[in-house]
């Protein structure tokens, strides 16, 4: 794909999953941006388009301005309603 430049100029974003709250959701997306840049892709972050939902403090949820995310724990935890709602605009 890189040789033929088939993804150059294409939009791309991130959905991340980490095992814990300190799992590095922002760092994971930020680090992966370099791969999109290498391919000439257009980075489309979610930003703060989710509004106040991004800052909900009544439940634990993943996601950041860099992209939607979930806290999966050991893999047995399903995405919360907030996490699913955050992924929708992305």
From TrEMBL:
- Molecular functions per Gene Ontology: NAD(P)H dehydrogenase (quinone) activity
**Where is the region Disordered?**
1-23
Please, which domain of life does this record's source organism belong to? Eukaryota
Q: Which InterPro entries match?
A: Flavoprotein-like_sf (IPR029039)
Report one GO cellular component. membrane
Q: Which Gene3D superfamilies match?
A: 3.40.50.360
Q: Can you tell me which family this protein belongs to? A: Belongs to the WrbA family.
Q: What's the name of the protein?
A: NAD(P)H dehydrogenase (quinone)
User: Organism source for this protein?
Assistant: Brassica oleracea var. oleracea
């Amino acid at each position: 794909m890189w040789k033929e430049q088939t993804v150059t100029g294409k939009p791309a974003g991130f959905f991340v999953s980490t095992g814990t709250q300190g799992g590095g959701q922002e760092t994971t997306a930020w680090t992966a941006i370099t791969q999109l840049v290498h391919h000439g892709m257009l980075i489309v972050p979610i930003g703060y388009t989710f509004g106040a939902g991004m800052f909900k403090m009544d439940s634990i949820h993943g996601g950041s301005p860099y992209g939607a995310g979930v806290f999966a724990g050991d893999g047995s935890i399903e995405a919360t309603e907030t996490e699913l709602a955050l992924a929708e605009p992305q």
